[in-house]
Amino acid sequence: MTTHEDTTAAPDALRDEAEGCLRALAGERARLREDQWTAIRALVVERRRALVVQRTGWGKSAVYFVATRLLRSRGAGPTVIVSPLLALMRNQIEAAERAGIRAATVNSANTDDWEAVFADVSAGAVDVLLVSPERLNNPDFRDLVLPKLAAGAGLVVVDEAHCISDWGHDFRPDYRRLRTLLADLPPGVPVLATTATANARVTADVAEQLDGDALVLRGPLERDSLHLSVVALPEAEERVAWLGENLDALPGSGIVYTLTVAAAHEIAGYLADRGFAVAAYSGQTEPAERLAAERDLRDNRLKALVATSALGMGFDKPDLGFIVHVGAPQSPVAYYQQIGRAGRGVDRAEVVLLPGREDREIWAYFASLAFPPEPVVRATLEALDAAGRPLSTGALEPRVDLSRSRLEMMLKVLDVDGAVRRVKGGWESTGRPWEYDRARYERVRAEREREQRAMLEYIATDGCREEFLRRRLDDDAATPCGRCDNCTGRRRTASVSAAGAAAARDRLHRPGVDVAPRRMWPTGVKDDLGVAGRLAPGDLAETGRALGRLTDIGWGNRLRDLLAPGAPDADVPAGMVNAVVKVLAAWDWERRPAAVVGIGSRTRPRLVGSLARRIAEIGRLPFLGEFVPLGEPAPRRHNSAQRLRSVWNALSLPDEVAAAVRDADGPILLVDDQADTGWTLTVASRELRRAGAPAVLPLVLAVPN
Ligand SMILES: [Zn+2]
Q1: What distance in angstroms lies between residue 469's CA and the mean position of ligand 1's atoms?
Q2: What is the CATH number of domain 511-703?
Q3: Which residues surround ligand 1, an ion (CB under 5 A)?
Q4: Are strands 49-53 and 215-218 parallel, antiparallel or unpaired?
Q5: CB 320 within 8 A of CB 303
Q6: Which of 250, 570, 596, 640 could be stapled to 322 by a disulfide with Cβ–Cβ 3.0 to 4.6 Å?
Q7: Considering the domain 226-359+462-506, what is its CATH architecture?
Q8: Helix orientation angle between 574-585 and 605-619, rounded to the nearest 10 degrees
Q9: What does the pLDDT read at residue 335?
Q10: Rounded distance from Cα 227 to ligand 1 centre (Å)
């Protein structure tokens, strides 16, 4: 192995070698910038830890690929890159391989290949190993693979390093595991952390976790291709109509970001109806479908992807021409990160924000999904202690009042805190005392509120928009951009045609959302309820319908008001009945319902009762009666097993109604206010089927999302 003296003795020779590596990577005309060279020298010569905070497109990957090449040729082990998105990895692997750097990946999608990959690593045949952060929390990987990798690594790279800091907008529990990895590295292994989006506080936090003495390279964040503007349109239908009327004028292909999955689908539907080549993209889109959509956008076969933030860091299209947000993200940092995807390789890109009145409610909803309150955490730890054996997430779910995804997030945090441990078969308690870090969660909450206020200031500001965002990222070099709507005084039209607004209104208010029936019983209820696995075919409901989603930008606002906890119980509003009738008219059921049954509600008896009776009246169907609620109202439950348990014995079908159902001799329209987890409808439908209904058609006002 070459010593430090050899490389420091001839810095010019080393720089020449570095320039040669860059040309292999990025083409004959590529030259290292001074700050890139500074970072490379720190890693290769000084073997330091470095944090590079530079805008997207600055060339962070060139730093670690060139450094890898130089270190490898001096006998160092392979570079280990921890990177959060597979999409990002695909691009990186292609870039590296073009430069003759041999790259391999370990992630959850290629477990079968791991043996071969690790054999290649041991044989020295891998220069760069890409690892997804989720791997760091996998017991086998953590205990068997990671120590070996860390011991043999020549360079460790942490991509999107702001995720380490819980000050950041994008903190990921998996990343906390990196603190241990970094602490356990042998001395002299250089570390490079990179991010495009970190304010001074996040930068300081990440630098401290790297090492007290890390080199921090922060560059200006300006992107002189971006033209920022804000268009204020009060009504949801106006914002959607604006898209329909302005999309054509936006350059090239781009991204329309929405805050919710439902909005992504609705807006994509509206734009597709108007002849635009668009596709919806969210975390719920199938992986294969996502890849195809990304390719279509990259190759300009689509005018736009209408996407949630799931279309993220890994997506790289240098000629992306515009980014429009329908609804504001909840922090200027997150916003700046998303708009930074536009205009990397073109002179001009348009960036438009269409804020909505309901944005703040959506932010509040996201905030409610944060780290759970102490009693819930304690209950989880007690359940694990009491079990005396590992419990899977599925087995824990019925014992703890949390949805699956929040439960998993919480367990990861507890794992890193040392209170629980992921083992084969699930999770076990370590028995170590654990403290609820109220101060930290409070601090994170306060920070989030500060960020939300700043986003509202961005919308309202009459100063330069880009300067505002860069200052929020503590970019001291920020000056007025001369390109945004406030700098130039050129405002975008903040109006739409009456016809456009009407068409958008029709689309957004077009009533009807499918309600998929539950087909599987939740795990963990077999012992007390005696059900498990698939529902019997004779117990199933048909696919039902809802007037709308609570998160919709169409009916959502009205339904949220009507169904809010504490909202007065009253007869269903006439306008809503009319809309429900339209849902029924548009319902392509196999057999028309023969009668109506309601689900008696303890909290909203008038609403549900009046809805069921009005529908029966208008449809000229007999109203047979209602399920009767039994016992005290169950507390709000969040997960399937608990919800099912609380509704299992809470509904009774009176004998005379059951007899009428049998006599009706046809499908039953089953009416309730909202579907929530779907278990009330599932249990009630099963009762009706068992009473003799050949089919049950659930109809509700609202589904959650
Ligand atoms: Zn400006």
Answers
A1: 10
A2: 3.40.50
A3: 464, 481, 484, 487
A4: parallel
A5: no
A6: 250
A7: 3-Layer(aba) Sandwich (3.40)
A8: 50
A9: 92
A10: 8
